[in-house]
Amino acid sequence: MFVAFVSDSARAASRTRARATRERRRSRESRGPRASLDMSSASQIFMARAVSRAVTSRLRAMGSSVRSTPAPSASTARAHQQRRSVQRTRVISAAYANEKVGDFPSLEFRCFIKDEAQNTVSAWHGVPLKNADGTFNFLCEIPKETKAKMEVATDEKLTPIKQDTKKGKLRDYPYNINWNYGMLPQTWEDPKHEHPTMKVSGDNDPVDVVEIGSSALAMGSVTPVKPVGVYAMIDDGELDWKVIAISVNDPKASDINDVADVEKHFPGELEKIRVWFRDYKTPDGKPQNKFGLDDKCMDRAYTLGVIEETHHFYNDLVSGKRANDEELSLA
Description:
Elements: H1 2-30, H2 33-67, H3 74-93, E1 97-101, E2 110-114, E3 120-121, E4 136-142, E5 146-148, E6 150-152, E7 161-163, E8 165-166, E9 169-170, E10 172-177, E11 180-183, E12 201-202, E13 208-211, E14 222-235, E15 238-247, H4 259-265, H5 269-279, E16 290-291, H6 300-319
Parallel strand pairs: 12-15, 13-15
Antiparallel strand pairs: 1-2, 2-3, 4-11, 4-14, 5-10, 6-7, 8-9, 11-13, 14-15, 14-16
Helix pairs in contact: 1-2
């Protein structure tokens, strides 16, 4: 475009110079030297103006061409932003995948976790508890609005996810669970440790997580979350912590930083969670579960203390400092 523009301008200038030359010849024949000088100045002015008009015309054409491309609409811009957001989400979640073996549901079904190199790793031991940005990894066992009672098999090699059983039959909850449910890897509720005030001991499992985000997460998925609260549920006399967390990819994640924020942005949700876990066994004729700490959902600071303590219990177990009397799989 620029070459063509220069060429056109040069041709215009050449034509102007030719006209000026003819005019000077006629002028010298009919006038004196002074008139020839005046005409020469006039022709230079005329030539400059012609070049200027040519430049201006071409610049206007170029500007019109640029302006002819419409600016992206607001909806297009949002679509681009959403695609960029999905790409960022994929980067965060890309480190882990899963492989499902056997028919679902069945006694043989297993969901194994794979790392970034596609090596099968333990769901309990092979996924880190924390990320470099301070978030925690949530392993989803039960997607929201489903009821198959899935859990990490802590007594099997590589601790895959399987469906819980009772008397040889697959177990379901009596109704759908309304949140994503799973656990924090590399945590353990030690059945030999008694809580100093509640006087109950751990349930021999990783710490449970109730993820309150808007999207259903896939079974076996690993998602960075922000823990913001915790309930001290007591199930058959055992302490069974229920951490309340939200996926960092959820639209409301930036607003949820402590337990008070949950009540503000999800009014009534904490009580729904407490009631659900209190009553889910009653359809089978069992008593309600109880809660310690005055039935309260404790704040983020308390929650982080629970996570840190149970991570310490886990480290003692896998290091051999605490005897593996429960015959758990440490591989």
